[in-house]
Specification:
By secondary structure, the chain is mostly helical. The chain is about 70% helix and about 0% strand. The longest helix has 18 residues. It is elongated and about 45 Å long.
Length: about 100
């Protein structure tokens, strides 16, 4: 359970940052204390009562909240996953991804 709490906390933190929320802002959205959210993100506590509110505030489904696969993959696995996903992406999004990759070099 300790590893799940840690992974979930890391996932919540990443989603929070991606959405542009501070800990205080997200805590207010889900009606908990900021210290409680900090403990959740550090993996010290499990947000049993706040799971649904967290998924709604972070705009992800509950299964997506528990998607830790990206954390466990090494570079080669991530590269292969990206290549597979490119087959299902529209031409317009391919162009966007191409420009993004070009800007990294």
């Amino acid at each position: 359970m300790k590893e799940i709490k840690y992974l979930l906390g890391q996932r919540i933190k990443k989603l929070r940052i991606n959405r542009g929320y501070s800990q205080q802002q997200l805590a207010e959205l889900i009606n908990i204390d900021q210290r409680n959210l900090s403990n959740i993100e550090c993996g010290n506590t499990f947000p049993a009562k706040s799971l649904l509110a967290l998924s709604e505030a972070l705009q992800v489904s509950l299964p997506e909240l528990f998607d830790f696969n990206y954390l466990a993959k090494n570079s080669d696995e991530m590269r292969q996953s990206i290549i597979k996903k490119l087959d299902n992406i529209s031409s317009e999004n391919i162009k966007i991804i191409y420009r993004l990759i070009q800007s990294m070099n």
